[in-house]
Fold this sequence. Notes:
- This protein is an alpha/beta fold.
- It has nine helices and 15 strands.
- Strand 1 (about 1-10) and strand 2 (about 15-20) form a beta hairpin.
- Helix 4 (about 145-175) packs across helix 5 (about 180-220), helix 5 (about 180-220) packs across helix 6 and helix 5 packs across helix 8.
Amino acid sequence: MRLTHLSLRDFRSYTEVELALEPGVTALVGPNGQGKTNLVEAIGYLATLSSHRVAADAPLVRLGAERAVVRGNVTRGSRAMLVEVEISPGKANRARVNRAPVPRPRDVLGILRTVLFAPEDLAMVKGDPGERRRFIDDLLVVRTPRLAGVRADYDRVLRQRNALLKSAGASIRAGKGDLRTLEVWDSNLATTGAELLAARLELVDALRPLVDKAYDAVADSGGPAALDYRCSLGDDVPLVADRDMLSGALLNAISELRKNELDRGVSLVGPHRDDLLLKLGPMPAKGYASHGESWSFALALRLAAYELLSSDTDDDGEPVLILDDVFAELDSQRRDRLAGMVAGAEQVLVTAAVPDDVPEALAGARVDVMDGEVRRVR
């Protein structure tokens, strides 16, 4: 799989961009603040319908424009596809495939697969549980696009249930409460939550050996690297990907926590309360890993995702690998190890402030990015 052409209109700092891309390595080179990351952010958005830098769509649209358009030509095996997303803050986004509208933007998920590593990924190791949940769920959707619907359904149910808990709690305290409507949302939360939780557990099982292997390859100390899933259901519930069992366990936990949830007005159990525990040896990486070890663990997570997605494909090839300003953050040994690991990938996009930040092992095509303009050098 590879992206052969990227077109942008009114995306971030760009009024208009046309960029042809080749197989192998392409380095996007230019001083900081010139628009390199905007280009790879657009590619990531085309693949995932989300940005790795911001949670909302509004910052993606150029100041003064009403909407942005991201368009890409994707080659998958012997097939060529054109995918386009129109980003309209405050309105419904729209998408097209081969110039034909699709019913929902998420119908384009899976056409282009990417794995993007960026400085923000350090938060997966050092940050809050939400960063690690997002890593798992984003990878779930890239791997199995239908899970975007499950994820959206769970988020919707959670919002509705939290709103009802707040209003029901106040009503019960006033002696006017009726829990029948809440029980319907309990069931919905348990059903969608079990589906999401089971998919996460299956994914973590698949990632475990790949993360340890990738960490060992890119780091020189501190291993082995391990993943554990911490579930809000507690230690008494076996963490197996049995959707019926998990749904029942969620309902039981909801029943036991009913009073606390009504008092606090929030849902206290479910996948939104879970965490992915990252360990180096017997210790948690968060709080114990050095800066270099934390970088290595973040790299290992992305490299494991890349290997997993590559093994999932049949004739479509590997996902596009994007390394955004990564090498400037690594010491020379980690730079060389990482470069050697990814040099043979089908398509790699690298951003760097200066040409010397791109390791020799990743010599290839070069595009200079300056003042919002892109120019192919070789």
